[in-house]
Design goal:
This protein has 2 helices and 7 strands; from the N terminus they run βββββββαα. About 20% of the residues are buried.
Length: about 160
Amino acid sequence: MGFVMTSDQYIIHFTGLAAGMHDFSWNVDGKFFEADNYLGVTDASVQVNCKLQKSDRLMELDFSGEGTITLPCDRCLGPLELKINASRKVIVKESELENSDNDDIFFVNRQDYEFSAENWIREMILLSLPMRNVHPEDKCDNEMIEKLDNLSDDSGLKPLNE
């Protein structure tokens, strides 16, 4: 996913938390995705909740997110608003290990006192998107499709409406 600056807003200070259940929530907007400009996300409004169950050397985080995200249609490039309903479970263990073969298990050292939930939230939302993001055909910008088809005629590519 590349290097992304982490906002302090998504930092969870876990050393001061007592054993048991803890709730966190964030409202994710379009600025959250600005570093990922290759995705073309122009706006978002996703309410993310996290239930963190802390025990002695283990934390289980259950993330859920619901809302909308706006990005370009893959067919006509017009703004497309998609509904998001996503979830993800992450396990954080105290260990001297650096990594895991499992994408949902992470390690912190004994001297660590905080971690960022930002990348987990970003991945949860982005992985909930369909592979192809398109308007229903009758909602696409026909003028733009015609322009793109004319460009594809010049380049020898297959038109978009086929």
